[in-house]
């Protein structure tokens, strides 16, 4: 049985294959490791129970940083995955994992919206004279491709793929032995790649700490904040290349920290119950998707939850969806959607009365679209103001539009 490394955007480890090493390992096993030193070629030397390993780690890591390696079976082989040290553990690997409160606190202080990074990266890529190296230019184009758009290509398949590739499930993909193509199409993988390319461009210059745009951090079960509005690019014309690299590097780190917070917010409250099935299908995910508004970008914040239960039919499950965005000319808009028995109840909030009136004039279009999707649509309600924290309980439908 061969034991080999597995490529990931976090790192690639060279693992010894001599002796009976593979025979002592089991699928899913976690191994504690630590970074010993940084090597001149940009990789790191890691101490582990398997001996000394070398790995290229584009994440912001230093000697002494603790890592976890996970053993993953792919067919007849065992491979090692280097897990993101700041990311939450999945339910199946939560047993024995270190407390995450420190990681949450660190990410909360460093997090920032993805929208400014997309705006400034796009502006830098558009600068005349080829300011950015080719590798960074290509990575920025990959990052921009994650933006959803209302240009007619937005459909349920596009939204599903955007959620799966939002970075929320990056470590789960690694642990499952996903093919490299699945990893390179993940937003967290692209952010890691951009971080590494920017550090390489700076050539070892210490990273500065410029201000990054802050917004309320995602919290499990917490309210949504509409993402902070449409982000405009900074004026980069007077900046030198190292200054642009520092700005983009800081904003990439902030976006990664915010993504980690979304992953923490999506952890089950009872990891052991979720792993053994006693939670009976309860689930909640918090994530953000970038949305193109012309050449600019806003962020749509989502919370998707499924009530616990043991329903055999998918149509008997109760799903709740909340999302918020800030987009002109409406300003902040919030939505709560309840889905059960193929029936949908929709409540919308706009924070100004004028915006609420605009939405009310468009409800017939939304109602027709839901009907075309074979969904029994309850009366679509539109309110001025902000929603209360809780979504209405299951079954609280209103009279159907006739």
Please name the defining characteristics of this protein.
single chain; 402 residues; OB fold (Dihydrolipoamide Acetyltransferase, E2P); 7-stranded mixed sheet; 6-stranded mixed sheet; globular; disordered N terminus; disordered C terminus
Structure description:
With 402 residues, the chain is of the alpha+beta class. The protein has two domains: 3-85, OB fold (Dihydrolipoamide Acetyltransferase, E2P) (Beta Barrel), CATH 2.40.50; 110-328, no CATH class. It contains eleven helices and 13 strands. It has helices spanning 101-110, 114-125, 134-144, 156-164, 170-175, 180-184, 187-202, 241-265, 271-276, 353-360, 363-372, and strands at 3-5, 30-38, 44-48, 51-55, 66-74, 77-82, 283-293, 296-306, 319-327, 331-340, 343-350, 376-377, 381-384. The strands form two sheets. Strands 7, 8, 9, 10, 11, 12 and 13 form a seven-stranded mixed β-sheet that branches. Helix 2 (114-125) packs antiparallel against helix 8 (241-265). The radius of gyration is 23 Å and the shape is globular. It starts with a strand and ends in an 18-residue tail after the last strand. Residues 1-20, 90-98, 271-280 and 390-402 have low confidence and may be disordered.
């Amino acid at each position: 049985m061969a034991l080999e490394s597995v490529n990931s955007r976090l790192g690639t480890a060279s693992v010894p294959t001599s002796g009976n090493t593979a025979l002592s390992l089991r699928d899913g096993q976690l191994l504690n490791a630590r970074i010993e030193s940084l090597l001149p070629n940009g990789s790191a030397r890691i101490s582990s129970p398997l001996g000394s390993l070398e790995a290229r780690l584009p994440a912001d890591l230093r000697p002494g940083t603790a890592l976890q390696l996970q053993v993953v079976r792919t067919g007849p082989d065992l491979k090692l995955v280097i897990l993101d040290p700041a990311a939450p553990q999945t339910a199946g690997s939560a047993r024995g994992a270190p407390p995450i409160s420190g990681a949450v606190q660190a990410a909360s202080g460093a997090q920032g919206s993805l929208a400014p990074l997309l705006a400034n990266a796009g502006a830098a890529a558009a600068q005349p004279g080829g300011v950015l190296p080719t590798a960074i230019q290509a990575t920025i184009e990959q990052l921009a491709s994650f933006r959803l758009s209302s240009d007619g290509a937005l459909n349920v398949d596009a939204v599903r793929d955007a959620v799966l590739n939002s970075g929320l499930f990056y470590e789960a993909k690694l642990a499952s032995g996903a093919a490299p193509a699945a990893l390179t199409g993940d937003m967290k993988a692209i952010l890691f790649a951009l971080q590494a390319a920017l550090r390489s461009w700076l050539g070892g210059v210490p990273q500065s700490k410029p201000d990054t745009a802050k917004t309320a951090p995602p919290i499990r079960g917490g309210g949504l904040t509409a993402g902070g509005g449409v982000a405009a690019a900074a004026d980069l014309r007077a900046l030198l290349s190292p200054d642009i690299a520092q700005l983009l590097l800081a904003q990439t780190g902030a976006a990664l920290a915010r993504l980690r917070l979304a992953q923490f917010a999506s952890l089950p409250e009872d990891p052991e119950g979720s792993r053994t099935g006693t939670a009976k299908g309860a689930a909640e995910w918090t994530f953000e998707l970038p949305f193109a508004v012309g050449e600019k970008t806003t962020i749509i914040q989502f919370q998707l939850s499924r009530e616990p239960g043991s329903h055999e039919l998918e149509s008997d499950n109760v799903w709740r969806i909340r999302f918020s965005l800030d987009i002109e000319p409406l300003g902040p808009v919030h939505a709560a959607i309840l889905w059960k028995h193929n029936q949908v109840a929709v409540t919308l909030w706009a924070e100004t009365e004028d915006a609420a009136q605009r939405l009310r004039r468009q409800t017939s279009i939304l109602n027709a679209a839901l009907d075309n999707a074979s969904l029994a649509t309850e009366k679509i309600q539109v309110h001025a103001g902000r929603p209360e924290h809780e979504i209405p309980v299951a079954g609280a439908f209103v009279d159907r539009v006739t």
